[in-house]
Design a protein that fits this description.
This protein is 67% helix and 0% strand. By secondary structure, the protein is mostly helical. The longest helix has 26 residues.
Length: 234
C-alpha cells in the first residue's frame, strides 16, 4: 500500500499535477507538452503585443497583431475552447487585422503627426489601464482567495466527453441568452447602417436613375414630336 502510494506520488510529481487533475498523466508526457506549448504561445503573444506598441512601422505593428491573434488562438485550443480559437482566426485575423493592414498600406497616413498628440491623452490612457488592472486583480484574486466561487456558477461547462465546446456554447447562446443575442445583432445592424449613411455622399455630377419619375411618365411627357423642315437637322 505504501509502495503504491509512493509510486502514485512520484508520477504526479513528474506530471506536475494532483490526483484527479486534468493535467494528470501516467508518464507526465501530456502535462509536459501542454505546459511547453502554453509557455511558447504565451511568450510569443506577450512579446508580439509589446512589438505592436514599439514598432515604428505601422505595417509591422499590424503583422505583430496578427501574430498575437494566432498565439491567443493556440491558448484557446489548449483550454479546449476550439470554437473561440476558430472565431479568433476567422473574424479577427481573416477580417479585422487584414482590413487594418490594407487600410494602413493604402492610405497615406502621417503617423508622425498622430504621435505628436499622444502625451495629451496619456492621463486618460493611464486611468483606463489602472481600471483594467484592478478588474484583473479582482477576478484573479477572487478565484485564488475563494476557490469555491467556481462551484457557484449557474451554468457550469460540461465535460468534454459529454458535450463539445461548440455545442455547449450554442446551447447557452440560443436558449438562455437568445434575446440578448438578438439585441446585439440589432445593435450591430444599426451601427452598420449608420456608418453607411454617414459616409455616403451624393455627387451632383453623376446622372442617377429616378424610379418614381419613370413610373409617373405618360405618352404626352414621354414622347416629343419635332417638326423638322426640309434641309434642317436636329
Amino acid at each position: 500500500m505504501h509502495q503504491s502510494f509512493a509510486v502514485t506520488n512520484a508520477k504526479l510529481h513528474r506530471a506536475g499535477g494532483v490526483p484527479g487533475s486534468p493535467w494528470e498523466d501516467e508518464e507526465g508526457t501530456n502535462m509536459g507538452l501542454q505546459a511547453l506549448f502554453f509557455y511558447i504561445f504565451a511568450f510569443i503573444a506577450i512579446a508580439s503585443a509589446f512589438m505592436v506598441i514599439w514598432s515604428k512601422n505601422p505595417v509591422h505593428s499590424v503583422l505583430f497583431l496578427i501574430l498575437v491573434f494566432f498565439n491567443a488562438a493556440g491558448l484557446f485550443l489548449l483550454l479546449g475552447a476550439e470554437f473561440l480559437a476558430m472565431i479568433l482566426l476567422v473574424v479577427y485575423v481573416g477580417a479585422v487585422a487584414v482590413l487594418f493592414l490594407f487600410v494602413v498600406m493604402m492610405l497615406d497616413i502621417d503617423f508622425t503627426e498622430l504621435r505628436a498628440g499622444v502625451l495629451e491623452y496619456a492621463p486618460i490612457g493611464a486611468l483606463i489601464g489602472v481600471i483594467l488592472a484592478a478588474e484583473l486583480i479582482v477576478v484573479v484574486g477572487g478565484s485564488v482567495i475563494s476557490p469555491e466561487i467556481a462551484k457557484t456558477v449557474a451554468m457550469p461547462i460540461p465535460a468534454i466527453t459529454e458535450r463539445t465546446n461548440t455545442a455547449a456554447l450554442g446551447d447557452v447562446l440560443y436558449t438562455n441568452y437568445v434575446y440578448f443575442f438578438e439585441i446585439a445583432a440589432l445593435v450591430l445592424l444599426v451601427a452598420m447602417i449608420g456608418a453607411i449613411v454617414l459616409t455616403l455622399k451624393h455627387r451632383t455630377t453623376v446622372k442617377r436613375q429616378n424610379i418614381a419619375n419613370q413610373v409617373a411618365r405618360n405618352p404626352k411627357t414621354a414622347v416629343e414630336v419635332i417638326s423638322v423642315k426640309p434641309g434642317q437637322g436636329l
